[in-house]
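Protein 1 of 2
SEQ + STRUCT:
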Amino acid sequence: MRIDLHTHTFFSDGELIPSELVRRAMVLNHTAIAITDHVDMTNMELIIPSIVKAAELKEDYITVIPGVELTHVPPSKIDEAVKRARKLGAEIIVVHGETIKEPVAPGTNLTSVKNPEIDILAHPGLITMEEADLAVSNGVILEISGRSGHNITNGHVAKMGLLVGAKMVVNSDTHAPDNLMDESAAMKVAIGAGLSEQEAKKAVNDVPYEKIKRYLK
């Protein structure tokens, strides 16, 4: 079983149309995939309806869950953006965390982990223990990233997550065909971040399954 809750299509900066992304995931034995293209306050109405429509692919392939990744949204606008994205049909809300690879606005992590409507804080970089603890309190899942660059701080994220008992998930952050990870590759990312085999299995399988089991066929 493989469930990936963070992927992109050509609706933002990915290379694939939804049907090819989903078909490729199916071949890699995925059970479900969330399409979470980049949005901010300017393009939600353009992108989210198309992602919602892409969920119809589940009729022929695997379960497809419409979502978004709120990206470089100013911290003061994140809560409003979450509400708008939900209203438009996004079922999985990912926030582009404070990765050290990009100039994400300070305060993005803290604002995100305070909002229980946010599902996943992606590649949160040098997340603090306070922020990780708030993620636990509000049910926000911390991401262990398979994407080059963002994954530099996976070890730190895993350490903070383990210290406070945060839920963690391994996502691919797919932008290109070879970014998708089968279960074996996802396990390697988790173990490489410092998780034990049991902890890795939880992040790769159990946490994402519990998050989306109501959508499964």
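Protein 2 of 2
SEQ + STRUCT:
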Amino acid sequence: MKNNTEFVAYEYKNITVKRDSATIYTDCLNNFGWELVGEEEYGFAPMLSSFVPAYSSVSAADSYEMVALKFKRNRRISNKSELDRLERQCEAGLASLGGLERKNSAYTMGVSLGSGLVGTVFLALAVYSFLSSNIVAGVLLAVLGVAGWGIGFFANRKMGRKRSAQTGPMMQSQLELVYTACEQAHALLVS
């Protein structure tokens, strides 16, 4: 049995992040003295809507891809105020990265849905033309409708690559800021 004569008081931190960014949060917060003590995954989203507390920052719609990370850190850590400042800087950079990713996906989704909606309108007009015995116009409108759907699919892929190429340098600069803050914090912890 271990004989601990030194009292250690801890402070605790809980954060909720997307599942795919949990590792970068864990790695970064480790450099600020935080130690991962637990990880809770949320359940399946449709059934979860009645189980998510009202005070939670997680909505039922995005809960299936979210994970709650629980950390602890010694309250009497040296250079705490400087570590806290660097931690806020790091978290702001990580939040900025998440915002850039959301903007990219929203833009490409908007282009795809817009094209698909135009294709749907053409298909509805094609059905109306068929019902009014205008076969030639109906076939032409049906071809345009299916083409609108196809454009939506391929536009999503192409616009996604284009937006990723445009925002790539901004994301790399934010990652550099995050890693610089982590490096400075780690140097403070080691000293």
